[in-house]
Amino acid sequence: VILLLQYNMVLSYHFLTFREESCGEGSGVEILENKPYTDGPGGTGQYTHKVYHIGMHIPSWFRSILPKAALRVEEESWNAYPYTRTRYTCPFVEKFSIDIETYYKPDTGNQADVFNMSATEKRQRNPIDIVTDPIAAHEYKVEEDPRLYKSTKTQRGPLRDDWIEEYNNNPGKTPIMCAYKLCKVEFRYWGMQSKIERFIHDVMVRAHRQAWCWQDEWYGLTMEDIRQLELETQGLLYIDKRPHGNIKEITQI
């Protein structure tokens, strides 16, 4: 339903929007590095190193086990679209990491194994459907419901519960894209591994629902437009640091 070549721009737009949504007590994003590379994951691409001051943007059960100083997550990302790799670490939390590899393919997720996974990894596969996967009541927004959303610019949508089957019965009628993700999580707190895995799943469902339902905002933009928006966003946002180094919020100026 979305062109493979479009989605690289969608990812960048979604990150910019996330930065503006992230304003709030103890929250913010710093970009430490943003530079091209020629010999890295996926070959040639763009490397970014960011710091997320996550504040209230994580579940209460997660905040409860972390010291206040640990509410900082570092992200390293290698974007060689249609391949990307992203790694998250927390400098103040021992043995915590999330490593995500992604291949974007123009299909409905019917490729058996794009990562050459082991038999154990294959048994842990978990398909995500942006239409039928449940959303927590406090996360649900009518304007981000693919069952209800119809694009004014593209006339795409709403999506039915059987939208994938509908496409497979008539392939080629509309463009489509699937994100194949291999997530490796290390979080050695007793009883918390499954919770963090569920949290990652829920974040991915919400992010890809937003990518679909925000298409009237990003449709027609070019990567040059995105680069300009990045410059404007960096000029509009700053991190307001209080005495003792506490980060209060990202504030518009």
TrEMBL record:
Look up the coiled coil feature and give its residue ranges: none
Tell me the InterPro entries matching this sequence.
PI_transfer, PI_transfer_N, START-like_dom_sf
The GO terms this record gives for MF are: phosphatidylcholine binding; phosphatidylcholine transporter activity; phosphatidylinositol binding; phosphatidylinositol transfer activity
Q: Which GO terms describe its cellular component?
A: cell periphery; cytoplasm
Name the SUPFAM superfamilies for this protein: Bet v1-like
- Which superkingdom is the protein from? Eukaryota
Looking at the record, the residues that make up the Phosphatidylinositol transfer protein N-terminal domain are: 6-234
Q: Which PANTHER family match?
A: PHOSPHATIDYLINOSITOL TRANSFER PROTEIN, PROTEIN RETINAL DEGENERATION B
Provide the protein name. Answer: Phosphatidylinositol transfer protein N-terminal domain-containing protein
- Biological classification of the source: Eukaryota, Metazoa, Chordata, Craniata, Vertebrata
